[in-house]
């Protein structure tokens, strides 16, 4: 007999079936029990009328059940299964669950839930987050492949830090000191130059940042894009804007069920405003009397400015553009027209930066000079710099933090809720 | 004027166009030059009749070219462009290329080519390897998503080794000792148990193996699958076999152009034979007088046995099944019917192991006992073992080494040719 999934049962006749899953809830009245069975597609009521069988079921045991579909208006969903055979195929070995998962909410701290991820994820609403996340990734890939970008996989063990700074994890690589890549920055540029022209990568990025906040992870999934033969950074913002429109459309089609579970309504995106950083700083000062640090906007400023944009343009998104040279990496293209300014941007989504991007320097001499200006030794970037000797075209790109995008899209409070198994300063388990 | 890609030109009229790309070859006759321009889609001949323009072009510079399409039977592909304007947009800074890339073959060792990956990949045939690899990944994802597997992303920084042994890289994680995951084994099992039921992951795996051979990489891309509610390991082999059939069909449809460039003909897969390890050892001894190590077949044996299978069944693939307990990890399900034997398998493709898989132990007590039998401390696997207390269903999975599959499919001689930027014992650059 072939297994039937819970989501298929509603459309079936009153026939014999085999279902498999976990025991989600037990309401026992001695000689009869109503038991909820959960599989990856949903939850259904089982009716058990055998005392031995009733005694055998334990919460969260996994079971194989044969029975007959029966319509019952009082059952959740209007259907239940009259059980004929029940076999425990995955036993339980606990006295008490770490926390109850079949109530309205989990009554445990986020930390406790993360400690027992294999329990908390059994709730359909916790798992729904990752089903949406999966479709975000799928949309990203689909959109870029449709536009002839190549998907690449580049090494995470590298010989020198990519983004500079000390915030890098060290690896013992056959008794040599190596690092975990902070981003695929150098490699995605290199692959553009190597003839792929337009590439993307979905992979882990590592930041040894000494931040333990609601919006930081030390290992995260980065959605990276790099594109050659561009005119300037506007091509990149155009690309990201079009992707965002596509994404929201795609999710509204593919994630209906999960968005309902999570009670999330997706807006449609019309246009993402683009505001220069200095204009944004001025607006913050004039409207909110909010002072900003030199060449940047702090976390509070991002939230305020997002609110301003939402009121004025009804947009959850805003591009902040033209950051100063001092706030961007040494490979960022300077803006000809504005001294000290770069062709760069951030994308802010509901008050949180989810993307950093920009045009890169493609000329060997200019890049070398810029390294020296930034106080780094060109020799420390041997192969990277070397790759610019051979006709590197104008190019640029951006990266989206997958967990940040997921968090904001689903209105989660902590980025850890958007990571299956988060890594932060104090957590490397499970 | 919108950029036109080389692959589109053949279908166009004799009209004005803008193309971009790199200078691939220059044949100059003083007042006239025939120049090949290469973009990501192909190569086309430019006709230059301006001496200043001719002097300005250098091999591998990137350029923007405006001109008029002109049919010419003597031009490669029957079409060329009469150039009106040529702009160098990416300058060159070299005296000599590290090696020539516009001849029949690259006259440089693999090591030299890898040192200058940003040059060697500019050849269409080198890049074609990764376009096929991209489609392998796409087929894997497509096939599994169609069968309701969830794509997951699990941490690569972990607190304890997964596959046992000392072949693990250590990371300094905020002054704690952590490791790079040898596989997502524990996590993919955990996610099956956490309610996803069937999962896959496309991610890096790290092996600090002291092997520097044609078939080993220390960082590679692993195509991992794990599936709950199975009967036994045959369900897994069925799944992999069906995937392989799908893969070859999919590649024959999507990679025609690249397979032609690489001169590779894809066979169709009818059925993959399944032979127990002990039968395979017997056949090797009887047919080839080849002795095998206890409970295994060595690399030479794999090649000989593949040849035997090819002759007998016309199959490039063979599943070797039922490995002994001593040769499999502690989480492998023992075979009830054969003492000392496990429900495990390898998939051998043209003489090379590309997959290891099997059913896993899902019962907490049994797993704990097995750990003790294997001489490992259950406490060292705290959260992993703990996750088996809550009704873990019967399950199993497998992993395919992406670079190994690519290498065999494309008849490459060295696995490094199937990695954009390989990592081995001596290489962490570029």
UniProtKB/TrEMBL annotation, chains A, B:
CDD domains: AsxRS_core. GO terms for molecular function: aspartate-tRNA ligase activity; aspartate-tRNA(Asn) ligase activity; ATP binding; catalytic activity, acting on a protein; RNA binding; transferase activity. It comes from the Bacteria. Its main location: cytoplasm. Keywords: Aminoacyl-tRNA synthetase, ATP-binding, Cytoplasm, Ligase, Nucleotide-binding, Protein biosynthesis. Residues 130-430 form the Aminoacyl-transfer RNA synthetases class-II family profile domain. One of its GO terms (biological process) is aspartyl-tRNA aminoacylation. HAMAP family: Asp_tRNA_synth_type2. This is Aspartate--tRNA(Asp/Asn) ligase. It comes from Maledivibacter halophilus. The lineage of its organism: Bacteria, Bacillati, Bacillota, Clostridia, Peptostreptococcales.
